[in-house]
Design a protein that fits this description.
Elements lengths: L4 H5 L3 H11 L21 H11 L6 E2 L3 H9 L4 E2 L1 H10 L5 H11 L5 H11 L4
Parallel strand pairs: 1-2
Helix pairs in contact: 5-6, 5-7, 6-7
Length: 128
């Protein structure tokens, strides 16, 4: 609900993409966890539910574009991926061409920090 329903109301294009990926079976919606132990760690709502899934061993890392959430994950030593990392990883894994990954990184540019953009741009050019 937080990503698709509220996202579509807010006009976020990624909400439609997420909704289509759910319909096509690429993403799975998990039922709400009751009680949610992550709430007691200061992770309310959707953040807490994502963290609870991680703590159950249902994923290896958490991906998010929310800098505040990522700082909280870092504080409790939970591995995470940024949005830019999710765009660059398929290139490094040989799944897409550099040009395609670079185009996706350019689309993300308004939504990520200048430092993150510069790091991944340099990384893709072989500078790291």
């Amino acid at each position: 609900r937080e990503v698709v329903v509220a996202g579509k109301r807010g006009g976020y294009a990624d909400a439609v993409i997420v909704e289509n990926n759910i319909k096509q079976g690429r993403l799975k919606v998990s039922r709400r966890l009751q009680p949610n132990p992550a709430t007691h760690l200061g992770f309310p709502g959707g953040e807490g539910e994502v963290l609870a899934l991680f703590l159950q061993g249902r994923c290896d890392a958490i991906a998010s574009d929310d800098a505040r959430f990522l700082r909280k994950l870092d504080a409790v030593a939970v591995p995470y991926l940024t949005a830019a990392a999710c765009v660059v990883f398929p290139y490094t894994a040989g799944k897409i061409k550099r040009k395609e990954s670079r185009a996706m990184l350019e689309q993300l540019r308004p939504f990520i920090s200048n430092d993150e953009y510069a790091f991944f741009r340099l990384f893709m050019e072989g500078g790291t």
